[in-house]
Specification:
Blueprint lengths: L9 H10 L1 E4 L3 E7 L6 E5 L7 H18 L7 E7 L8 H16 L1 H4 L19
Parallel strand pairs: 3-4
Antiparallel strand pairs: 1-2, 2-4
């Protein structure tokens, strides 16, 4: 994997966690956010809860292999962070490909981009007067 196509810095991961959109599946959690680079970049996170180093490295390999199969068919210019879950250790990359395709297509579709300009829900706050 080319260094330019991976997310390495903590601030890049945090940007996706807080500003990106997410999709959840029992095998994997995906975060996506637009970038201005014109190419897709990925970051993979596996916690120690998943298992020891062998299991964590296997999860990374599986996710990377599945993403490489999906990458040619998706729009360029996105950052993705994939978070492995406990069931990822038993999965194969061929099982992960349809999950990634579905998640990425949902996250990168134009109709999912439409949001409120502030990014927050607009709620009216109603204050009640105390009669004491």
């Amino acid at each position: 994997m080319d260094k330019k196509t991976t997310l390495k810095l903590n601030k890049e991961f945090k940007r996706l966690y807080f500003k990106g959109k997410s999709a959840v599946h029992p095998l994997i959690v995906t975060y996506a956010c637009k970038n201005r680079l014109g190419r897709n970049r990925i970051g993979i996170t596996v916690t120690k809860k998943v298992g020891k180093a062998v299991c964590r490295n296997r999860c990374k390999r599986i996710i990377r292999a599945a993403f490489y199969q999906v990458n040619p068919s998706i729009e360029q210019g996105w950052d993705f962070v994939f978070v492995a879950r406990a069931r990822t250790t038993q999965a194969k990359s061929t099982e992960l490909v349809p999950v990634l395709k579905k998640q990425i297509s949902n996250l990168t579709s134009p109709d999912s981009q439409k949001r409120d300009t502030t990014g927050k829900r607009q709620q009216k706050s109603v204050k009640k007067k105390d009669k004491s």
